[in-house]
Amino acid sequence: MLTVSVKWQKEVFPKVEIDMSQPPYVFKCQLYDLTGVPPERQKIMVKGGLLKDDADWATLGVKEGQKLMMMGTADEIVKAPEKGPVFMEDLPEEEQVVAVGHSAGLFNLGNTCYMNSTIQCLHSVPELKSALVKYPSERRSDLDQTSHMLTAATRELFNELDKSVKPVAPMQFWMVLRKKYPQFGQLHNGTFMQQDAEECWTQLLYTLSQSLRSPSPSESLDTVKALFGIELVSRIHCQESGEESSETESVYSLKCHISQEVNHLHEGLKHGLKSELEKASPSLGRSAIYLKESRINALPRYLTVQFVRFFWKRESNQKAKILRKVDYPLELDVYDFCSDDLHKKLEAPRQSLRDEESKKLGLKANEKSSGSKDNDVKMTDAEGSSNGSGESSKATSEEGGSSDRESHLTGIYDLVAVLTHKGRSADSGHYVAWVKQENGKWIEFDDDNPIPQREDDITKLSGGGDWHMAYICMYKARAVPM
Amino acid sequence: MAPDPNSASGSGTSKEDTSVKVPSKDPKKKDEKKDEDLSDEDLALKLQLELYVERVQDPDPRLQKVALESMRQEIRTSTSSMTSVPKPLKFLRPHYGILKAYYETMADSDLKKYLADILSVLALTMSAEGERESLKYRLLGLEGDIGSWGHEYVRNLAGECAQEYAKRQSEETSIEDLMELVTQIVAFHMKHNAEPEAVDLLMEVEDLDLLIDHVDKTNFKRTCLYLTSAARYLPGPDDMLVLDIAYMIYLKYEEYSNALQIALFLDNMQYVRQVFTVCDDLLRKKQFCYIVARHGITFELDDEMAADDEDREALQEIINNTKSSEGYLTLARDIEVMEPKSPEDIYKAHLLDGRASAGASVDSARQNLAATFVNAFVNAGFGQDKLMTVPSDSLSGGSSGNWLFKNKEHGKASAAASLGMILLWDVDSGLAQIDKYFHSNDNHVIAGALLGVGIVNCGIKNDCDPALALLADYIDKEDSSIRIGAIMGLGIAYAGSQNEQIRSKLSPILNDAKAPLDVVAFTAISLGLIYVGSCNEEVAQAIIFALMDRSELELQEPLTRFLPLGLGLLYLGKQESVEATAEVSKTFNEKIRKCCDMTLLSCAYAGTGNVLKVQNLLGHCAQHLEKGETHQGPAVLGIAMVAMAEELGLEMAIRSLEHLLQYGEQNIRRAVPVALGLLCISNPKVNVMDTLSRLSHDADSEVAMAAVISLGLIGAGTNNARIAGMLRNLSSYYYKDASLLFCVRIAQGLVHLGKGLLTLNPYHSDRFLLSPTALAGLVTMLHACLDMKAIILGKYHYVLYFLVLAMQPRMLLTVDENLKPLSVPVRVGQAVDVVGQAGRPKTITGFQTHSTPVLLAAGDRAELATEKYIPLSPILEGFVILKENPEYREGH
C-alpha cells in the first residue's frame, strides 16, 4: 500500500492509497470516485509518461507521498457542428459579390476613365438595368445596327459587373462605343485620347433612349425618358417688343452654370434656367434679345445635374475648366424650379412626406428620452443607419415592382452618384465615379479599384482646388406611396 | 601645499586639455614678449626661480639641496590653479634643457633623484609628444607620494604608462618597475573618485586583477558599473575578463544580485552556483530565483545551494515559474483589465465608418483565423476571452466549440492552440480546458490541442512533466499535422531545458527518410529551441545529416530554412564555438550553403554587438545577385540580431538598414522591415515607426506585409495609440487584399498583446541580460516572416505562436517577505546613463510616482519612493522582494 497525493486541476487530494497488487485501472477507478472523470479520460503523469491501465506499479517507481498529476475532465467532447460554416473563400465568385457589398471596378483600357466612370454611374440605376435585361437580342427594324450593338454591349457589361468581384475589362463595350461614336476613337500620339465624360454620358443615354423605346409609338414607354427626362416649359419674352411665347422641351440634364455669384448648386441651377437668346423678332423686324425663363414641368426619377465647368478657351485650344467651388447638397429640393402646374401636383406628396418625417423624428425623440442617459451614442447611430439603409432598399424594391401611379414624386432628391473630374481641362486629368450602393455605403470607383468612402467625403468634391470635383451629379427622386 | 585633489577631480578631463595644450601651442617668443608686462610679483618669482636653477648647478650639495627644495616648494604651491600653466612651471620652461643636461652630469645620489622628480614634473608641460620624459624621470626619481604633485601629473603619468607598456610589450622587456608605478597610480585614482581612469589604465596594461585590491565599499559600485558598461565595447575575450573582475568585486562586497546578473550574462553556471552557495540569506536567494526565472533558463538547485529540503523546494518553485500566472493576474486586476476583449474591440471598425468593409454576412476563413490570433494575443494569459473559453453551459452546448469550427482545416489547429495562449502559464486549469480537444476526431483539432499544451507550459517547469507525458505519444503518429503539433509543443514547453529524454525521441525523426519535410523542419526547430545556446554536438550532427539528406528539390522548399535555423539556435550567442559547424556547412549543397552560413553566423553572434560581424553581413547584402539566392534575407535579419545588443550599435544598424532599403534588391528590401521589427521590438521608436509606415504602402506586397507585421512587433504590448491608428487605417486601405488584411489584423493583435501588459523584448534587467529562449522564439518567427506567403499566409500560420517564448509581463511587482504582493510607491521615469559620473547622480528623469504593481515601458526605470523598504534586487523589474528597512523611522 502506498499513499500518494493527486493533483487535479486546482484541487489536491492528499491521501490516495494505491493498491500495488491491483493494476492501475483500479487506481483510476478510485480517482473516478473523487473527481467524476471516467477512467478512460484520465491522464495521470508519472515520470515523464502517462500511466497505462495495465502497467506494473513495481516498475513505475512511485514513491510514498509522491505527488501525481492527473489531467482530464468529464466535459463533453467537442464535436464539429453538423453544418459547418460556409467560408467566403469557398464561394463561387457571383456569391462573393453579395458579401463584398459592391460591384466590381472597370479596367482602364487607355484613357478610358471617362467611360468607366460614366458606366459606373449609370450602372447604379436599377431601373435602367432591368430595362436592359428586357432588351431583345434581335435588332428592331427601325434601329441602326451600331445602336443595337451598343445597347447589347451595355447590357452585357452591366451583367458582368453584377457578377464579378474582380475588375472587369469593358473591351466589347469600348469597341462598340467607338464604332458608334467615332469621335471617342481619336488618337493622339498613338494612344486614345482622353474625352469629355459628359459627352459620353449624353451620347450613351441618347443611344439607349433610342433603343430602349418600345416598339409601339406611344411616347410614355420610352424608358430612358421616363427615368431621366426633364420636361421644361419656357417662357420666351422680349423686353423690347413685349412679345411673349412659350415652348416646351425635354432634356436629360439640368445645367448648373458657374459664374462669379454662384456658390451653390441651387444658384447655379437658377442661373441655368434663365438664358438670353438673340433671334429675329417678327414685330421688330430685326433680331432682338429675348429672355428665356424655363421651369420644370415634369420631374424625372433620376435627376441629372451637369456642372458647366468646361468652356472652350481659344487661346489654349482646349476645354478649360472652372475650378470654382460650388457646393451641392446630399438632398436636393427642386420645388423652386418647378412650374405652377407641377407645384400643385407636388403639394400632396410633399405634405405626406413631411408628415412621415415628423412622425419619424417624433418617434426618435421618444426613443431618446425613454432610453437611459448613458445610452451609447454609437448604438443610436448604428440604429439610424440601419433604418436608413433598410428603407432605401425597401423603396427601391417597391419602385421596381410598381408603376408611377402608386408612388408620387415629391421634388426632393437624394444624391446617388457623382462623376468627378480632376485636372485642368476636360480632355486631360482623371474621371472617377462615386456611387452610393444599395446598402447605403459610398464607393469610389477609380477604374479597377473600388474604394469605400464616407458620406462626408462625398460633399467635399465641390471644387475650389485641384482635388476631384463634381462634374455630373445624379440625384434619385424620393417618392411617397399614395 | 598640494592641491586638494577632491575639489578638482570631478571635472579634470576637460581641464587637462587646456593645461597640456597651451605650452605646446604657444611659441616661445610670445613668452618673451610677455616678459616686459610681468607684474612685480611675477618678476620676483621669475628671478627667484632663475636663481634656484643656477644654484642647482652649484657644486655645493648643500646649496643644491636647498635650491631643489625651494623649487619644489614653489611648484607645489602653485599647482592649485588648473586653468593655466602654473607660473613656476612657465618660468622654468626655458631652463628645462639646462636642468636636463645638468642631471646627466650628476653623480648618483639622493639629490640626483630629487632633481629627477622635479624634471618629471617639468616634463609634464615640456616633454615632446611621445617622449614620455615625465615617466622616465619619475622612474628615476624618489618614488615618493605620487599625489603630492597634483592630479594632472598623475593623469599624464597614467597616459605615458599605457604607451610605455605597449612599447615594452612589443619589445618584450621587463615591466616590473612600470607595474609598481601603475599600482601607485591606480591606488591614487581609486582613492580620489576617478575609478574610470583607474580601470582604463589597468585595461591598457592588461592587469585588471590589481583592481580588486583597491576597490572599497565606497567605490566598488561605480567601478563595477564602469566595468560592465565598458565590457560592451570591448572585443572578446577582454569583455569576459572585465566582467569576471566585476563579478569578483560584487562577490567580495556581497552584492550577490549584481554578481548573479553578471554570471547570467556570462552564461557561466559555475558562477551562478557560486552565488547561490556563498549567500546564506534565504530571502535573497528567493530574489536570485526570480532573476534566474526571468532569464528563462533551466536551473536545478542542489543541496549545496540550499541545504534545507523545504527551502529548496520553495526556491525551485520560483525558478520553475509556477507562480508567474498569479503575479501576472495580480497586475491585471490592479490595472483593471481583466475584462476579456473581443477582436472587434481591437479592430475598432466604428472609427472607420463607411470605410470598413460592409458587415460581412459570410464568414471568411482567413479573417476568422486572424480573429483567432488576435483573440489569443490580446487575451494572452488572462484565462478568459470571448471566443474560446466562453462557458460551455451557455446556449447550444458551448459556443467555444462553435468558434473553433469557424476556422477552416489547419486554421482549427491554430484555434485550438489559441486556448493555450489564453491560459498561458496557468498549467493546472489550462490542461483541464484543453483536455476535451484531445478526444476530437479531427486531426487538426488534436494537433492544435497538443500545441496548446506546449504553449501553456511555456517557461514553466513541473516535476510531473505534463507536457512531455502528454505529447510524447503523439510524436510518431501517422498524421503529420498531429506530429508537428506535438513536436512544436515540446519545443516551446522545453525551450532551453536540454532535456535528454526529448532529444532521444526527436533526433530519430530528423534522419528518418520517410518523414515529410515539414515534420523534419519543425523537429529541427524544436531541438534548436530545447538545446538553445548549448553547442550540443549530437543534435548538431543530427541536423547536419538531415540537411545533407535533403534532395535538391526539397532544399528549395520554404520550410527548409528551418533546418539551418535549428542548427544556428544551438549556437545562439556562442560566438567562436560555431566555427567547426560553420566549416561543415560549407560542404552543403550550394542551394543552401550560403543561407546556412548566414544563419549560423547571425545566430552565433546574436546579441553581441560585434561590429566586425555586422560589417561582414552588410558586405553580403551589398552584392547584387542574379541567381535568386536566398541568403540575403537571413543576412539582413542577422544584422539586426547582432546589432541589437546596445543602443549605439542599434542606431547605426537602423541607419544601415535605411541604406539597404534604398539600394538593395527586392529580397533585401523584404527583409529590412523584419530586421527593423527585431531591433525595436516592443519599443516603438518614432523614426522606425515612420519608416515602417511608409513601407506598409510599398508597391511590393511582401515588403508591405513584412512592414505591417513589424509595426505590430515594434508596438507589441504597448497599446501605442499612433501605431494602433496607423493599423486601423491600413485595415481600411487593404480591406480588399485578404493577405495584407490578415497581416494588419495580426499586427493589431500584437500591439494590444496581453492588453498592453506584455513585452516581447528579449532584453531585461535594464537591458543588460538577453534571454536566450526569448530571442530564439523571436528569431524563429522572424525567419518565417522572410517568406510570408509560404509560411504564415500558408498553412503554417501557427509559427506565430513561437512568439510566446518571448512574452513576459512588463511589470514591476513588489512582494513582501512571504512573497505576497505588497503595494509601495515607486518613481518610474526614463532611465539615465550614469556610468562614470561622480557622486550619486539621479538615475531617472521625468518620473511619475505610482504604487506597485506598475507597468514599465521600454527605457523606463523604477526606484522606490519610500525608505521604508529595501529592495533585494538592484534593478526594479519583474518580481522584487522588499525587506523592511530596520533603520526606518515613521515621519522621517
From TrEMBL, chain A:
Q: Which UniProt keywords apply?
A: Hydrolase, Protease, Thiol protease, Ubl conjugation pathway
Query: Which EC number(s) does UniProt give?
Result: 3.4.19.12
Boundaries of each USP domain copy?
104-478
For this protein, the record's InterPro entries field holds: Papain-like_cys_pep_sf (IPR038765), Peptidase_C19_UCH (IPR001394), Ubiquitin-like_dom (IPR000626), Ubiquitin-like_domsf (IPR029071), Ubiquitin_CS (IPR019954), UBP14-like (IPR044635), USP (IPR028889), USP_CS (IPR018200)
Give the SMART domains listed for this entry: UBQ (SM00213)
Q: Broadest EC class? A: hydrolase
Q: What is the name attached to this protein's record?
A: Ubiquitin carboxyl-terminal hydrolase
UniProtKB/TrEMBL annotation, chain B:
**Bias regions of kind Polar residues — which residues?**
1-13
Q: Which InterPro entries match?
A: 26S_Psome_Rpn1, ARM-like, ARM-type_fold, Proteasome/cyclosome_rpt, RPN1_C, RPN1_N
Pfam families hit by this protein: PC_rep (PF01851), RPN1_C (PF18051), RPN1_RPN2_N (PF17781)
Show where the 26S proteasome non-ATPase regulatory subunit RPN1 C-terminal domain sits. Answer: 835-888
**Which Gene3D superfamilies does this entry report, sorted A to Z?**
Leucine-rich Repeat Variant
Domain RPN1 N-terminal per the UniProt entry, residue ranges: 49-351
Q: Look up keyword Repeat and say if it applies.
A: yes
Query: Where do the segments described as Disordered lie?
Result: 1-40
Q: Which SUPFAM superfamilies match?
A: ARM repeat
What ranges does the record list as Basic and acidic residues composition bias? 14-36
Query: What UniProt keywords apply to this chain's record, in alphabetical order?
Result: Proteasome, Repeat
* Protein family: Belongs to the proteasome subunit S2 family.
Q: How does it assemble?
A: Component of the 19S regulatory particle (RP/PA700) base subcomplex of the 26S proteasome. The 26S proteasome is composed of a core protease (CP), known as the 20S proteasome, capped at one or both ends by the 19S regulatory particle (RP/PA700). The RP/PA700 complex is composed of at least 17 different subunits in two subcomplexes, the base and the lid, which form the portions proximal and distal to the 20S proteolytic core, respectively.
Q: What does this protein do?
A: Acts as a regulatory subunit of the 26 proteasome which is involved in the ATP-dependent degradation of ubiquitinated proteins.
Name this protein carries in UniProt? 26S proteasome non-ATPase regulatory subunit 2 homolog
